[in-house]
Amino acid sequence: MRPKVLEQIQARLFYTEDLIIRDFDLYGKPAVLVYIETLCDTDKLESSLFKQWFRTKSDSFHNLTIDELITSAVVFPCTNPEEAVKAVLDGKALVHCEETWYSLNAEQNNVRSIHEPNNENSIIGERSGFIENLNVNINLIRNRASSSQLKVRYLNVGKYSAHKVAILWQDGVADAQIVQKVTERVKGLNTGMEVHPGRLQKELLKEEKRSLFPQVFGTERIDMATNLIMRGRIAVLCEQSSTCLIVPVSFYTFLRSIDSVLMEDKAAIVLQTLRATGLILSLYICSLYIAVVSFHHEILPSQMAISIKASLENVPYSPIVEAVLMIVIFQLIAEATIRLPSQIAQMVGVAGGIIISEALVKIGFVSNVYIVIVALSVIGTFLIPTYQVRILTLILQLLFVFAAWIVGFYGITLLTAACMVHFFSLEPFGVPYYSPIRSKAK
């Protein structure tokens, strides 16, 4: 007769057909093995249970208890159906004998190899990144940090199923109040959906000031994450994700790459200056063109003004139309090259940009001058190392273009002042957003 708890387990799993139930005899006593075949490794079950069981039948060891028989590294009793269902969904197998349920490790290890993230390439630094396995990711951080002060706190979040989330920080360097605040916010995530970095990011910023500026830094690089943790930041990792979330951060963090972190100060300053130049180009060059063409052409030398005016004679639309059109087209090409395989992406990026730009100039949609302007803007955008700031740059770029189209330089100046006021008012987790490095991180 099968135990009643087994019926409850089947009911809670909605009688799924990949739930395997096997009856066997253990020293004359009925026993049951329960596992989900799509989550468990049958080789582990054979080596930790059945091979050991057959060996004891032929040797001098008889009448071993079930917890003595199982050779799995972790064996613990399940006292209620909820614990049993959770163990089964975690990839463990259940064994029932003598009115007691035991779970043993039998998970499938489908782990990809460790390699450098494609979206965070660097010239110097490690060639390894996070993978979709929480234990492996923590192991990679611990190996690189080699610090006894590195602390790990596990949390189980979710409404219908428990998703494992880990919080890592350097004790004595990270602010204890911020650690507590991050822990409470992650615990507050009560969702029936899958737990992933995007959902965790929303929960972390739930009580912060709403802003277009990114306030949670995400990285797949082990060296970057470890460097920030050792400087006092707090990392949040979740199972089945290769993205590590870092808080608190400043805007300065989003403009740094691992190259500038590992280089000497002078070389790092040069790289940071180039990235700042790229950010300014991507934000202002298109809007400055619109303002000059529409309102302030007198600031240009006469010969240049005549040349630009001549290029605009065959364009039937307002400068704002060609500006928005070209920005959208170049962003479409950029997104297409990101999603396509690398062998095709280069051809699509170069051929698409050249062919489309030349065709638009010939049919009179845009001017030659603006093709150069928007190309410089796109190049400046790609100098920014983080994708989050690139999205922010695109939004602000369009806002500046419309402001310049309405009132010229005055619109650009007013919008810049509004952005700066908002920028300096941000304090995610109580840390000023404009500060380059926290005081405790030094």
Automatic annotation (TrEMBL):
It comes from the Bacteria. Keywords: Membrane, Transmembrane, Transmembrane helix. GO terms for cellular component: membrane. InterPro entries: Spore_Ger, UPF0353/GerABKA_families. One of its GO terms (biological process) is spore germination. The chain crosses the membrane at residues 276-295, 315-333, 345-363, 369-387, 399-424. Pfam families: GerA. PANTHER family: LEUCINE ZIPPER PROTEIN 4, SPORE GERMINATION PROTEIN. Belongs to the GerABKA family. This is Spore germination protein. It comes from Paenibacillus contaminans. The lineage of its organism: Bacteria, Bacillati, Bacillota, Bacilli, Bacillales.
